[in-house]
Design goal:
It contains two helices and ten strands. The protein is mainly beta. It has an eight-stranded antiparallel β-barrel with strand order 1-3-4-5-6-7-8-10. The radius of gyration is 19 Å and the shape is elongated. About 30% of the residues are buried.
């Protein structure tokens, strides 16, 4: 709840003048994700593991500031940790890995059809905060880029199909590695999400 409160405060700080000039939209999204490995253990048996396909829930505010398309997304995901040796898979633990993400972005329209369908590209930084059961939280910075196909549902409502890729650091800390355990230089997340948005 505290993390969602932070996100709502950031939304409220957006300039009121900007909101008055251009219609802003609030989008609620749910997306399926996939992550590359967070660590690799070369002991017996060898295993690579990471967040296991968490579902990501997002609130995103979008609009224009000073003529530039912008957005701010706040996302929450809960996951288990899974891994394998290339031929088999094991779920190490379930629902004990929580990700909270803040992601401001610049949005560029690529095209608009006569029916109101829009295609947009977007990119920006991401701030990820990972909470592991029984461990201190850890934060990582990275970046993301993607595209959204937006369909009108009426005067105020739209539905969005969004695909994006983010790159940040592994949630594993340096002091959690060792001779047999290494973490990759980066960790990649891909997402395909469906959302519904309303004009504010």
């Amino acid at each position: 709840m505290r993390r969602w409160s932070i996100a709502l405060v950031l939304v409220a700080l957006l300039p009121a003048a900007g909101r008055a000039q251009t219609p802003w939209r609030l989008t609620a999204e749910v997306g399926g994700t996939g992550f590359t490995e967070a660590f690799h253990d070369s002991s017996t048996p060898t295993i690579s593991a990471g967040a296991w396909r968490p579902r990501m829930y997002t609130l995103r505010l979008t609009g224009r500031l000073a003529g530039v398309g912008v957005g701010l997304g706040a996302s929450l995901a809960k996951s288990g940790m899974g891994g394998g040796d290339g031929s088999s898979f094991v779920l190490i633990f379930t629902d004990q890995l929580v990700l909270f993400e803040l992601a401001p972005e610049v949005r560029i329209p690529l095209g608009r059809g006569a029916s109101g369908v829009e295609l947009l590209a977007h990119a920006g930084p991401v701030w990820d905060h990972w909470s592991l059961s029984g461990e201190p939280g850890r934060s990582r910075l990275g970046g993301q880029a993607g595209m959204t196909l937006s369909f009108p549902l009426g005067e105020a409502w739209r539905t969005d199909l969004r695909a994006d890729v983010a790159i940040s650091g592994s949630f594993v800390n340096d002091d959690e590695t060792g001779p047999d355990v290494r973490r990759p230089g980066s960790m990649r997340r891909h997402r395909l999400a469906l959302g519904i948005s309303r004009r504010l």
